[in-house]
Design goal:
It is a single chain. About 70% of the residues lie in helices and about 0% in strands. The protein has about 140 residues and is mainly alpha-helical. The chain folds into two domains: about 40 residues, no CATH class; about 100 residues.
Length: about 140
């Protein structure tokens, strides 16, 4: 089987017969598959970045509130063995919340980078298709 024959078998003949389609691409009527065209959008990535930023901020506020919330425990519960356990739990939670905060900070930047790259990719692809589309319309007018 030649390359051209294999290509036609996979993607359909050039005359517009049945063709392979991505599940997420807009289908021909009655063929099933997705309902939207295959496209990127920076909206979800930007939103996810914002959510990570919000979580980072709220986590830091919570972590910062732990210390003052435990002030005076040493004097009010002096001599109780639970004070040492409470301090251990406090330290553990401060470390966990700091790790969450740091991870969210990393994610916020990474997701924003993806949003920017996807947006630039969309713009570049749209521009490249405008050139093809314009050439095809020019041919139709001839």
């Amino acid at each position: 089987m030649s390359y051209s024959e294999r290509w036609q078998e996979l993607f359909g003949p050039a005359d517009g017969g049945p063709a392979m389609r991505l599940a997420s691409a807009a289908p021909d009527p009655g063929t099933g598959g997705g309902t939207d065209g295959l496209k990127h959008s920076n909206g979800p990535w930007t939103s996810a970045s914002g959510t990570a930023g919000d979580l980072r901020t709220s986590t830091e506020k919570s972590r910062a509130a732990l210390g003052p919330g435990h002030e005076g425990i040493d004097t009010g519960a002096a001599g109780l063995s639970s004070v040492a356990a409470l301090k251990s739990v406090l330290t553990s939670w401060e470390e966990r919340l700091q790790a969450v905060r740091d991870e969210c900070e990393h994610l916020e930047g990474s997701l924003l980078t993806v949003a920017k790259e996807m947006g630039e990719t969309d713009a570049a692809i749209e521009t490249s298709f405008k050139g093809v589309d314009g050439a095809a319309r020019a041919d139709e007018k001839r």
